[in-house]
Structure to design on (483 residues):
């Protein structure tokens, strides 16, 4: 599977392509960090890798990474994100107080800052939104996710959720937002 | 609120920095004048990243369980080995080193890891060979000379050479009052030896020998050293004695020289001595040597 076609497939929202990449590099990456940071548990490593993959996905959907600017292989790009995530993890975990980490290569930040940590108060509010989304249910939940997270255009959303056209999808979106906001304010 | 959907788009564009300077001014003044708009703004400002937070969490969770369900720990094992070939510093510019003061602990850890992987990763053969070598070392090296020493000294020879009075007829005859003193000294030395006071006897024997050469005294001195766990000294004494052709003391001197070599871990030297004794002894020491050589 060619990197550029994978990139394209992920960009168009092909969830299967994302999972294929995930499974393809899963073992090699976990093996690497479990060996180099031997106090990491499998659970830690799965967390780090899944977060890295999410960061890769977001960089593709928000256009930061595309076919033109992929300078290395997709694997190298993913592993670089993963190593950065691992270092961030290790830094705030006192099990790793006995090792010193020096970073000699200034490595680009490949992932979205939004993926980092929020103030406790902010995270509490996000969790309320999460609950409201669940209460809202599908298709509204799915519609809002496709629009705000997966960055889908209205025409694509219309296709995916079987609306007549982009305008119908847009109307639906407005209704869903109104309901979500109502739920949010009642919480 | 009327036109809520248009307002939401306005807010989205504001949050995404997609508005022109004029539009931003319009946005700010609307927030000041319209409380409902301001409330909508504050809600959307939380709800939009909230939707992303929630969706991201869900995606992460589904990927994580995909990895967990698809691969067992065993599937990961070959990749742990593969990771040894990756230089983190060269490839990612990341250097990991133990912090000061924790170095020893980390070293031990990595050694443990190594022996763990030795065992895990199909080097059981090597481990087994090492175990055999260690066993061989214990069976055939030092403990063997120890075993032969015990056999010769304690079983065949029944401990330190027993002082026998009748040997005294070979004593150099000394006359006069001074001779009585010397006789006393000699007796005291043998008494100490008989009582197992080897250090005292060694000093006495040495003092007597400094005045006059005597094969018997020398023979007992050697035995006192051997009994006192000083085989190097006893070897020297017995060698000296043998150079003097000690006559009737020759075979027993050889016997105890051999035992001294065993005690000192010099099994090959011991063997030479016992073989000579087994061939040329001509008395009870020849039999003892023959018996002992079968155990080599």
């Amino acid at each position: 599977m060619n990197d550029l076609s994978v990139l394209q497939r992920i960009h168009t929202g092909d969830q299967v392509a994302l999972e294929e990449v995930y499974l393809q590099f899963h073992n090699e990456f976990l093996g690497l960090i479990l060996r180099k940071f031997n106090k990491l548990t499998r659970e830690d490593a799965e967390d780090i890798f899944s977060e890295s993959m999410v960061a890769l996905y977001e960089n593709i959907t928000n256009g930061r990474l595309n076919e033109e600017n992929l300078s290395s292989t997709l694997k190298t790009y993913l592993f670089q994100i993963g190593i950065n995530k691992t270092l961030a993890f290790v830094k705030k975990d006192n099990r790793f107080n006995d090792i010193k980490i020096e970073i000699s290569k200034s490595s680009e930040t490949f992932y979205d800052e939004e993926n980092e940590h929020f103030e406790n108060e902010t995270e509490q509010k996000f969790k309320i939104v999460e609950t409201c989304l669940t209460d809202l249910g599908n298709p509204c939940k799915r519609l809002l996710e496709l629009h705000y997270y997966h960055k889908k255009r209205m025409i694509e959303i219309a296709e995916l959720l079987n609306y007549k056209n982009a305008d119908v999808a847009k109307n639906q979106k407005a209704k869903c937002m109104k309901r979500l906001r109502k739920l949010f304010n009642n919480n | 609120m009327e036109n809520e959907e248009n307002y939401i788009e306005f807010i989205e564009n504001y949050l995404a920095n997609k508005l022109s300077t004029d539009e931003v001014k319009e946005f700010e003044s609307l927030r000041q004048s319209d409380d409902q708009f301001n409330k909508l703004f504050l809600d959307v400002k939380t709800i939009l990243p909230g939707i992303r937070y929630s969706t991201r969490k869900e995606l992460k969770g589904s990927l994580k369980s995909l990895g967990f369900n698809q691969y067992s720990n065993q599937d990961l094992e070959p990749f742990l080995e593969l990771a040894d070939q990756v230089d983190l510093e060269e490839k990612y510019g990341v250097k990991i080193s133990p912090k000061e003061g924790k170095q020893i602990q980390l070293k031990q850890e990595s050694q443990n890891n190594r022996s763990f992987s030795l065992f895990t990763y199909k080097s059981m053969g090597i481990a087994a060979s090492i175990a055999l070598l260690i066993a061989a070392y214990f069976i055939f090296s030092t403990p063997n000379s120890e075993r032969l020493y015990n056999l010769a000294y304690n079983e065949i020879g029944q401990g330190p050479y027993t002082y026998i009075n009748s040997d005294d007829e070979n004593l150099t005859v000394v006359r006069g009052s001074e001779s009585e003193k010397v006789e006393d000294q000699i007796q005291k030395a043998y008494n100490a030896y008989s009582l197992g006071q080897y250090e005292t006897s060694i000093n006495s024997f040495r003092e007597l020998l400094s005045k006059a050469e005597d094969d018997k005294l020398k023979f007992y001195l050697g035995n006192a050293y051997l009994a006192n766990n000083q085989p190097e000294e006893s070897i020297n004494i017995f060698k000296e004695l043998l150079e003097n052709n000690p006559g009737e003391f020759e075979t027993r001197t050889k016997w105890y020289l051999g035992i001294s070599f065993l005690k000192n871990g010099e099994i090959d030297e011991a063997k030479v001595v016992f073989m000579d004794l087994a061939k040329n002894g001509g008395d009870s020491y020849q039999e003892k040597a023959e018996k002992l050589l079968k155990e080599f």
Remarks:
- The mean pLDDT of chain A is 85.
- Chain A touches chain B through 65 residues (CB under 8 Å).
